[in-house]
Structure formats: structure tokens, C-alpha cells
Amino acid sequence: MGVLPEDIGIVCWDARGHGSSTLSGPFVYADMVDDLAAVLDEVCGGRAILIGQSMGGNLAQTLAAHSPDRVERLVLIDCADNHAVLSVGDRLAMRWGTPLAFRVLPWCQLVTMSAEACALRSTNIAYAALCLHKTGRRRLEQVLTSLCDALEPNPDARFSIPTLAIVGEEDRTGRVREQLRALAERDPAVSLVEIPNAGHLANMDATDVCSAAITQFCSRPATDTQVSLSLPGNVRAPFGVEFIRLKISPQGAISQRVEAQGRVSLIDMPRHRRWIGKCPQSRKEIP
Predict the structure, then answer these.
(1) Which residues contact 271 (CB under 8 A, 6 or more apart)?
(2) In the chain, what is the straight-line distance between the N-terminal and C-terminal CA atoms, in Å?
(3) Does residue 4 lie in a domain region?
(4) Which of 98, 126, 138, 262 suits 155 as a labelling partner, its CA being 20 to 30 A distant?
(5) Among 116, 110, 278, 108, which residue's Cα sits nearest to residue 201?
(6) Helix crossing, 29-43 with 55-66: angle to 10°?
(7) How far is CA 153 from the centre of its chain?
(8) At 92, which CATH number?
(9) Which of 34-38, 83-87, 220-224 has the lowest average pLDDT?
(10) What is the DSSP letter of 151?
(11) Are 202 and 210 in contact (CB under 8 A)?
């Protein structure tokens, strides 16, 4: 966040059932879309730049498709294309494959497989495992299954706003990489940046390159959306950056506080200690 232009205000929110935001009932994708709209009503007086990774990218696409007047630009990081046309096999795998895996595979194995598919760096694999473990088996299944509701297959769909798509060349989750490449080919509003040596968490595996691409995209005039990767080598965001964190209560109420950028210690991950042995910086805090 610290590498973004100083005149861009930053709002970081915890979606329902994630981070510090609570959720007592089932996770419903449409409710999360309404939450995001409420967040924009609360903190944004005009159009916003939406930056979303994975599920956050699906969410940003949904809002942009249904309320384009509220979005100035889109940055999509390692997410599926909401409008991609899926084969019968793809649809069956999404709708039934996830529930089947959650019923057949042990929880520890699910966490391991999912975390290792998310990233290349051992620190980021460990971070993903920690987040997945904290989410819990039942809630994670609800979240992944609900993402089917984000899909609106339409080969003629086009974004009416400048859009940057970022994908790690080693992203092994689903068909994210293929779909974002196809999206950039069919939609002239979309610029694609493929980051080498990065997985599904490209913003963590290759922080410098990802952050610099976003900075260029956000800093340029709306008519100039092409992003070059001729970038300086050390563009790393400093720790301790302040941002606004928003919490969504089960009733939809929004509370807000300003806090220092959070960090997670890998030592707080008792059930996945095998990653600590792989990580040379395991006793350091990671953002």
C-alpha cells in the first residue's frame, strides 16, 4: 500500500466471515456484494478503484458489471473471469467437486494442498495455510461453493472501464491463468501482466513487480491503460503503513478504525509446523 500514489486514499475491508468481520449464518456471495456497495456508500464520495485478489477479484467484477458508474478502474489479481464460458466438465467440477473433496479428504490434507497451490515462497504457503486453518472446514467450503454465484458466462461481455489483470505465471488454481489471458485477448479495456516466478498469491510472491504495475496503472490517465514492466528493482511497500479497516457485523452494520498494518507470526500455526522447518525466516513476522 505504501507504494501507491500519495493522493490515492486506501480502504482495506474485511469481507463477512473473513478477518475481523463476523458471520453467524451461512456465507452468501450476493450478501458480500451488498456489503461492498455499503462500504463504498460509507467511505467513498465518488467512483472507486477496486483492487481484488482471487475472490476479491470476482467480487470487483460483479460490482463493476452491475454498477459501472461506481467504479473508476479495476485491478484483478489471480481471479477467474466471471464471464468466461465454461465447459460442462468445468461447471460440474465447480458445483460438485468442491463439496466432494471436503467430504472425502482429511482437513489437514485439504489445507496442505490448497496452501501449496496458492504460492511458491514457503513463507507465503505458510501464511495461506494459517488463513485457511483459521477459516475452518465448513466456512471454507461455503465460501468456495458460493463463488459459483459470481459466474455469469457471456462471451460478449466487455468492461466499460480500464482494467488491469495480473496473474502469476505459476498460478495452478483452477483455470485462472488461462481465463485471464483469454479475457485480455477478447476485451480491449483489459491490460494483462503475467508475473514470472509467482503463483496464485502473485501480490505476495512478487510484491515489487505487482505493486509497481498497480502503481503505474493507477497513476496514468484513464485513456492510457497499458502497463510496462520496465520497472525499478526495489519498490517494496514499507511495514507499518496505516490504513482504514472496515468490519461488517452480521446485521450489516459497518464499523471503522485506523490501525497499523497487521502482521502474522508463523509460530501461531500449531497444526502446520512442517512449514516452519522449510522457512528460513520462520521466526520473523510477515505482513
Answers:
(1) 108, 133
(2) 11
(3) no
(4) 98
(5) 116
(6) 70
(7) 20
(8) 3.40.50.1820
(9) 220-224
(10) -
(11) yes
> Helix (H, G, I), strand (E, B), or coil: what is residue 208?
helix
| Structural element, H or E, at residue 191 | strand 190-195
Three-class secondary structure assignment of 110-132: HHHHHHHHHCCCHHHHHHHHHHH
Q: How many domains does the chain have?
A: 1
Q: What is the rounded CA–CA span in Å between residue 171 and residue 46? A: 34
- Residue 280 CB-half CA count within 13 A: 1
pLDDT at 18 over 60: yes
- Rounded to 10 degrees, the C-alpha dihedral 232/238/244/246 comes to 90
Note whether residue 256 is domain-resident.
yes
In a domain, 99, yes or no: yes
Cell numbers that stand for 52 in this block: 481484488
Average pLDDT over residues 3-24: 78
- Residue 23's domain comprises 11-286
What's the confidence (pLDDT) of residue 260?
A: 32
Strand partners, 259: 243
Q: Is residue 2 part of a domain?
A: no
Q: Residues 14, 103, 91, 68: what is their CA dihedral angle, to the nearest 10 degrees?
A: -10
In the predicted model, is pLDDT for residue 247 greater than 50? Answer: no
